[in-house]
Amino acid sequence: MTLKNKIILIAEDEQFLQKIMAQKLTALGAKVLTASNGQEAVEIIRKETPDLVLLDLMMPIQNGFDVLKITKADEKLKNIPIIILSNLEQDTDRAHCKELGAVDYLIKSNVPLKDITTLVISYLEKNETK
Questions:
Q1: Which residue, of 43, 64, 105, 122, is most buried by count of CB atoms within 10 Å of its CB?
Q2: Residue 35: which of 27, 21, 24, 103 has the closest Cα?
Q3: 4 belongs to a structural domain
Q4: Hey, which residues does 10 pair with through a beta bridge?
Q5: Predicted TM-score (pTM) of this structure
Q6: Does the residue 55 lie in any domain?
Q7: CA distance linking residue 43 with residue 61, whole number of Å
Q8: Angle at 31 between CA 29 and CA 37, to 5 degrees
Q9: 11-47 tens-digit pLDDT
Q10: Residue in 63, 104, 97 with CA at minimum distance from that of residue 83
Q11: Can you give the CATH number for the domain in which 99 is found?
């Protein structure tokens, strides 16, 4: 699958990681938007309605948990797949994010970039068939 015509938001405050993921997804044809804090992420989600969000939990201004809650509470936005990318390894954090509506929860340090892009493609394909 190509990511042509797909909009993906990367909400990540680590600039290096944000840039690497954006380059990889752009090379696959996606339109990639980026946010460096939670407030910016919510604004972009509301304005652009991306096809998928890669969301860090520990961000300035507004954390990823809040972004997830706000997005999933909005009728227009609640079906956007949100994949959590975090360094928080607690099972309670993982369970809380699933409860709030995240489709997946990945530990950044445990997942190679190519696996993230494969997962993005997989979730976008699933969402297309709904």
A1: 64
A2: 21
A3: no
A4: 34, 54
A5: 0.93
A6: yes
A7: 13
A8: 135
A9: 999 999 999 999 999 998 999 999 999 999 999 999 9
A10: 104
A11: 3.40.50.2300
Q: Which of 33, 94, 44 has the alpha carbon at shortest distance from 65? A: 94
Q: Sign of the CA dihedral 40, 4, 23, 81?
A: positive
- Contact between residue 109 and residue 83 where contact means Cβ atoms under 8 Å apart: no
The answer to whether residue 7 is domain-embedded is no
Q: Tell me phi and psi for residue 95, to 5 degrees.
A: -65, -40
Alpha-helix residue ranges (DSSP H) falling in the chain: 15-27, 38-48, 64-73, 91-100, 113-128
Single out the residue of 45, 54, 48, 49 nearest to residue 25, CA to CA: 54
**All residues at 6 or more sequence positions from 61 whose CB lies less than 8 Å from its CB, including other chains:** 37, 38, 39, 40
Low-confidence ranges of the chain (pLDDT < 70): 1, 128-130
Domain of residue 110 covers 12-128
27 neighbors 122 (Cβ within 8 angstroms): no
Q: Which amino acid is at 19?
A: K
Residue 112: per-residue pLDDT:
86
Distance CA 21, CA 33 (A): 11
